[in-house]
Design a protein that fits this description.
about 300 residues; Rossmann fold; about 50% helix; alpha/beta; globular
Length: about 300
């Protein structure tokens, strides 16, 4: 009996150690060692120069950036493993022509909670209408915002994303059940594994894509944020087909996107048949990171045009 108790005690202790094991922080210079110096220094300067704003909404603290010049505002919405500065190269190219708001989602596990936080930020910044640019989860969230507040959206970009569907929930059901019970390091290990085997190769082995995602996995992103964002991805709502038909919409897709497969890409275009479509070739899931010049030009051309 004593032997069994000892085994149980050892297993419990082992589990506690596993759960308490911290995610190891890795210095920026090490993570970005293979990134070209000009890109690396540009990101460091961006983070150093621009002041981050904070706003508490329903008990959650939002972090966001509000910069730029211009009569029109662009609201950037990142994906599941992103943050406000994942857009930095695009923001720097557009900030002389537009006001820009880019934010980081706190751990909120439903689209309505994200919407309320975004509306509070827009109100604080005195923005009554804006352009939406959303990628992946951000593109899904952009559709939700149009379904609820179409009067606030002048134009919208749905990038590397998907429409409301039940496919993702079905395919990820088991993983979704397991993730909350895993320690943080194991959740981040999942993100690192997906990056190295999927998103990095699809990006053309872009070192900036690899470094940024690894930085997120090594302490910039928390387990709570990651799981909350997953739950937002499977948070169902009716696609705003009628509302979107009255708003100029651009769909940006990549023909080799490893995280949004062909079926979902085709569903998105079928859901919004009046949208423009720009298909990028061989750039993967993060074209604004590894092809920022091309991406910025696409956005500028779409957001600056006066016709539909």
């Amino acid at each position: 009996m004593a032997y069994v108790i000892a085994i149980i005690f050892f297993l419990v202790l082992l589990a506690l150690v596993a759960y308490s094991y911290p995610v190891r922080r890795i210095p920026f210079q090490h993570l970005y060692a293979k990134v070209p110096d000009d890109i690396k220094k540009s990101l460091q300067r961006f983070r150093r120069v621009h002041e981050i704003q904070h706003l508490k909404v329903s008990g959650k603290t939002w972090r966001y950036l509000a910069i730029g010049k211009g009569e029109e505002t662009i609201l950037f919405l990142h994906g599941m493993a992103g943050a406000y500065d994942i857009w930095w190269q695009v923001i720097e190219d557009l900030q002389d022509r537009f006001n820009i708001i880019s934010l980081t989602y706190p751990p909120i596990d439903n689209l309505e909670g994200l919407r309320r936080g975004i509306l509070a930020i827009l109100e604080k910044e005195d923005v009554s209408e804006c352009y939406l640019v959303g990628t992946s989860l951000g593109g899904y969230l952009a559709q939700y915002l149009i379904s609820k507040n179409p009067e606030m959206i002048k134009r919208a970009v749905f990038a590397n994303t998907f429409p409301p569907n039940d496919i993702i929930a079905r395919k990820t059901r088991n993983a979704g059940k397991i993730l909350p019970f895993l320690p943080q390091w194991a959740v981040m290990q999942y993100l690192k594994q997906r990056t190295t085997t999927s998103t990095y190769p699809a990006s053309g082995h872009s070192e900036i894509v690899l470094a940024y995602m690894m930085e997120q996995a090594h302490g910039m992103l928390t387990k709570k944020q990651y799981i909350a964002r997953y739950r937002c991805i499977i948070d169902a709502f009716e696609a705003p087909v009628s509302e979107a038909s009255k708003i100029p919409v651009l769909i940006i897709e990549a023909d080799n996107d490893p995280l949004v497969d062909t079926q979902l890409r085709e569903m998105l275009k079928a859901t919004y048949p009046s949208s423009r479509v720009k298909t990028l070739h061989g750039v993967g899931h993060f074209p604004y990171l590894n092809q920022p010049g091309q991406y910025t030009q696409i956005l500028h051309d779409f957001l600056s045009t006066s016709n539909n």
